[in-house]
Design a protein that fits this description.
Number of helices: 1
Mean pLDDT: 79
Order of helices and strands: EEEEEEEEEEEEEEHEEEE
CATH superfamily of the largest domain: TolB, C-terminal domain
Shape: globular
Largest sheet: 4 strands, antiparallel
Strand order of the largest sheet: 1-2-3-4
CATH class of the largest domain: Mainly Beta
CATH topology of the largest domain: Neuraminidase
Radius of gyration: 20 Å
Number of domains: 2
């Protein structure tokens, strides 16, 4: 935790586990976050007080898959998250309530962001060429796609403004350029195929063109996202980079 200017940084969890994706409750009295501290390297949802104390797992039953990308409802009584289980091939967005044993499947998608007025959840939903942004009405389940696929091939990670009239997203208007080095280009293509099927790899390539130990393989990540602002208007939608 820190001030907006980056000063007075405080480590709240002080745990050997990976603790990430922390989000404040609307009332500011709790922090919801993701951690793999249950000892199985599976990521689950935890909640704590603002000073890092009183850490407890949200669900009594341990997750088999990953629970991640938490987002609060406006009243602070509910939350949504993404569930990923590659073993059973279960994926989707779930809605939960604190104190309840289980959550209910809400929709397919990823990167959920609950609107400030509590009426809808913005999320990214995959299609055959990328991802598009979707607004889902929490009460009715009705869907709205504010941006056409041609506007941005990949539309990810929505984040609402406090007033709820704007939305920041990451995306890419252009495909990645071809990598001229043959090995790097082949690795890039392999990585895209592997990532699409498993969601795990980022790209590994043998630069020497000879069999080498794993320690000699160069692993890299190539990013293809930029940030954009989407503005909700009465007569339609508008976004800018």
């Amino acid at each position: 935790m820190m001030n907006p200017d980056g000063s007075e940084q405080v480590n709240l969890t002080q745990h050997r586990a990976d603790d990430l994706q922390a989000v404040w409750s609307p009332t500011g009295d709790q922090i919801l976050f993701v951690s793999d501290r249950q000892g199985t390297r599976v990521r689950d949802l935890y909640v704590m007080d603002p000073d890092g104390s009183n850490v407890r797992r949200v669900f009594k039953r341990k997750a088999k898959g990953w629970r991640s990308d938490p987002t609060w409802s406006a009243d602070g009584k509910h939350f949504a998250y993404k569930y990923t289980d590659w073993d059973s091939f279960e994926f989707g967005l779930y809605l939960g309530m604190f104190g309840e044993a289980d959550a209910e499947l809400f929709s397919s998608g990823s990167s959920p962001a609950w609107s400030p007025d509590g009426s809808e959840i913005a999320c990214a939903v995959g299609h055959d060429k990328g991802n598009h942004l979707i607004f889902i009405n929490v009460r009715t389940g009705k869907r709205e796609q504010p941006l056409p696929d041609k506007a941005l091939l990949w539309q990810f990670d929505p984040s609402w403004s406090a007033a709820g009239d704007r939305l920041a997203i990451s995306g890419n208007r252009h495909p990645l350029p071809v990598i001229l080095d043959r090995d790097l280009h082949n690795a890039w293509k392999t990585n895209r195929q592997f990532s699409s099927s498993t969601g795990m790899a980022r790209g590994c390539v043998n630069l020497s063109r000879k069999p080498v130990p794993l320690q000699s393989i160069l692993c890299y990540r190539q990013t293809d996202r930029n940030c954009f602002i989407h503005r909700r208007l009465t007569g339609g939608s508008k976004f800018s980079s």
